[in-house]
Structure formats: structure tokens, C-alpha cells
Amino acid sequence: MKNLQRGQRLSLPNDIFSLSAIIDAKSENLVFDVSCFGLDEKGHLSDERFFVFYNQPCAPGQCIQLQQPENDEIGHFDLNLEGLPATIRKLVWVLTIDGEGSMSTLQEGYFSLKTPDGHLATFEFTGADFSTERALMVAELYEREGWRLGATGQGFAGGLGAVVRHFGGQVEEDEEALPLEHHIPSLSHDLPETEKVPCDEPAPELPKTSSRPVSKPVRPLAPTSLPQPSSSKAIPTIPATRSNTPFETVMDFSDRLQTLSSRVPIVSSRLLTEEATKNALVMPFIGALGYDVFDPLEVIPEFIADYGVKKGEKVDYAIVKDDKIIVLFECKKFGGDLNVSHASQLFRYFSVTEARVGVLTNG
């Protein structure tokens, strides 16, 4: 069994397809929900039937099933990787807070991937790694010359609704505002009854370029209209999309950087730890550059070299392109002093990677 650290990855044996993913989390004051997102090769929720959570406990063909938790577990997912359609290339497990609170009060968390014969890998995390986040991308299983497990361990500022939007879904404004006791979410609330898929129906074999059509257009929501009330749960729908023109892409990039710059004076007084600085500023900055900080094929958190550096020395983020590390990020506490030893840490990583750009920041 392999004990993974945050940012580490593990290649699975080629002959293993039947797996179980188990999530546990303990806190005196928090109530948790767990979910699994089945994403396409672009990291998008292009088929809502592969979003498995408390109200949709299995995907077509039973390739992903949320089982009744055992012992102290809060989430138990059974997987059949051979049953996944060709369009689903990544599974992401998300832990979210139901109600008020933040991940900083999480006492301990645990993720395990196992076969019927025993555990393959485990990953442990605690609230000390987080600040005001209300969601946590715990781990992901993705296909790249075989299946690989990544210990993600990345906090997310919003709740489940924010995660749904991050993966390309949208949250219905009227449904998100309903009190929990009156709210029974259904992913197919806007679809004809004939399109609802029972749990025992085989998953369709789709070409990689296909996606599930939407039965009606989805009205885009302004950012200010997406509050996260404590007594609501997120309902994703799949938006119709089109590619931006080059001009729109540049303007979008500029807008994101300007938005991030305006955020600094607002949150600076709350950035009391290095971890808070990373989550509030560095991760959004990487996202503004156009990289998905939650995709290990694009960004590796807590990157550790196998040789050539001091024992236990790591960099906070490494941006990857064409299987090569191109940019390194090292973050220190907001407003803290930066010194030569911090810079030397990046320089040592230049000698063991192909990166030639490093960013050392205190916010």
C-alpha cells in the first residue's frame, strides 16, 4: 500500500478495473457531503449523469456507485473502470461542507483507493492545510497511458455550486435559494421523463467528441447572483458553449487579472498563513494565466523532485506543458520577508526540471 502526500501521483496496474474509493472526514462542528464528478478529456462535466452524489447515487451502467457508508466512512464509491464510456477520462472526488463553517476546522481526513484484495493507496489531510474554504477536491483518477491516481488535496473557496461551475455546469438560481427542507434536487429536472437513466441501464459507448445535448438553453448567471446559502445544495445543468475569438480570449485574460488585482486589498488582512495566501491569491493567479490548478496534467501542487534537492524540499506549484515542467511557483506568507534561501530553493529545482521561469511571491 502506498501512502501518498499531497501532489503525488500513482500509476495503477493495468489489470485492475474494479475499485472502491473511500472518504472519511472528522470534525466536531461540520457536516459533510461527498460527490464524484465524471469528466471528459477537457475536464468538463459534459454529461450530468456522471455526477454522482447523494441524490443521484449511481452513473449509467453502475460504473460509479455511491454506496451506503460503512463504519466511520462518509463516502464509499464502487467503480468499474471498464464500464466507463470513452468520453469519461477523469473522476474527481469532492468533499463539501453542508451548512456554515470552513475546512480549517477539519480535524482529520482520509482517502483510500482499494481493490477487493486490499488497499492500493491512501491519502491523509487535515484542516491545518486550509483556511476559509468550503469545498475540497480530495483526489482524482485519470486516464493517461493507463489509469493514475492523484492526491489533489486542494481547497476551493465556494461550496458545491462553485465546484459545479468550475467543471462547466451551472447552478439554477431559483433552486439554489430554496431552503434545504423544501429542496429535493434532481439533475434531470428540466429533461423529459424518457431521458432519465435508471441505474441498471448500460452506459452508452460514445465517440470522444460527442456530448449529451441539453434540452433547453441555460441562461447565464451574473457572478453576483450566485450566493452560497448555508441551507442549499447545488444543482448543475450543462451550458451550451462556443469557442472565444482571439480578441475575446485576450480580453477575458485581462479581465481576470484585473479582478484578481482588485481582490488583493480586500483579502490581505485575512491572509495570516502561507496556505491562505496560496488559496486566495496564487491559485486564482494560475487560473487567470489559463491553467487549471485542479488538473494534475496542467498543474502539480506540492511538487517534489526525486533527486537533486534537499530532503523534503518542494515547490508549491509546477505548471506542466507537453509533459514538461515549464513554470515553478513558491509562495510565502502574505507580506512576509523574502530572502536568498527562498530563491535558492527555486534555483535548485531549475537543475532537476526543464523549467526556466520561477515565481517567488509573498502575495
Quickly list its features:
363 residues; alpha+beta; Lipoxygenase-1; 2 domains; six-stranded mixed sheet; six-stranded antiparallel sheet; 16% helix; globular
What's the quick description here?
Helix content is 16%, strand content 29%. By secondary structure, it is an alpha+beta fold.
Query: Based on helices, strands and strand pairing, what is the structural class?
Result: alpha+beta
CATH architecture of the largest domain: Sandwich
Q: Unreliable stretches, pLDDT < 50, 5 or more residues?
A: 174-197, 203-235, 237-251
| Helix segment tally | 5
Outline type: globular
What is the CATH class of the largest domain? Answer: Mainly Beta
Strand order of the largest sheet: 1-10-9-3-7-6
SSE pattern, N- to C-terminal:
EEEEEEEEEEEEHEHEHHEEEHE
Distance between the termini: 38 Å
What percentage of residues falls in helices of 4 or more residues? 10-25%
Q: What's the total count of β strands?
A: 18
| CATH homologous superfamily identity of the largest domain | sav2460 like domains
Q: Quick one: biggest sheet? A: 6 strands, mixed
Would you give the CATH topology of the largest domain?
Lipoxygenase-1
User: Average pLDDT across residues?
Assistant: 75
Q: What's the domain count?
A: 2
The radius of gyration is: 20 Å
